[in-house]
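Reading a protein record of the kind used here takes only a little practice. The record below shows the convention in full:
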Amino acid sequence: MPEELEHVKCLIIGSGPAGYTAAIYAARADMKPVLYTGMLAGGQLTQTTDVDNFPGYPNGILGPEMMEDLRKQAERFGTDIRFGYVSSVDFSALPHKVVIDEVKTILCDTVIISTGASAKWLGLESEQKYNGFGVSACAVCDGFFFRGQDVAIVGAGDTAAEEATYLAKLCRKVYMLVRRDEFRASKAMVHRVQHTKNIEIIYNTETTEILGNETGVTGVRTLNNKTQQERILDVTGFFVAIGHTPNTEIFKGWIKMDATGYIITHPDSTQTNVEGVFACGDAQDHIYRQAVTAAGTGCMAALEAERYLAAKEHIVTA
């Protein structure tokens, strides 16, 4: 059973661009935020290499370096950053109860959820070996690095179709690997893919191995699951677009979510269905999933948490 007890004005759960931005704004508003990093401090960007599309870095920056910059900025204004994970929550009454590492209970006047989402992977050893060196789960983030080259993308839904057409604008050739004999995407997206000249759709195809060397990806080995015919595609980039899983399991039963686990917030707001609990970043965004949009909603969550506390204090003192 939890033994320790602590009371904080603002607890931030997660340490990606959304969490750190929320911390910067909350700390500057004298909310004395406490931020728990989760098991992957810095979030998904710590597993990427070059980040070229975040404003303010004209020469680009490594993902881990950018997250370190954000962490230092949050600390500069007084954020209490701690390594740990949330093991359970109780949002039945105010203040909210959040248990850390199964041993420490924190009473929270406000909670900002910025736990992000995790890309789904095929589960290949070679996929992880070349992750960040030609293998990516975000075409919008990394497609630029493959301009004029041949790439492959695996997936059959709307996201995969959208990312394939995005890559087609940059790359010489895009192989789209569909594991079944049909798409899951909407008819409009399928039509767009089928009518993009430099996209070659290969149906009934499984990826068995990502090939590469010390410089990165050099090809992909595929297997037709009907004919059992093997084929090697000469590509320098391999994109996985089979979906994301929001890191929100711990909040189920308390926070309203969609069918896939993304947190539902009020329109034009980060406020959840629970008073004093706000959600930002990829935990509530299944559309854009960019560092800059995550940071923007982190700012929104902190501002809304500040206004919520100010209103509560006014009611108490009035």
User: Anything to note?
Assistant: The two ends are 39 Å apart (CA to CA). The chain has two domains: 4-118+244-317, 121-240. The CA atoms of residues 26 and 302 lie 5 Å apart.
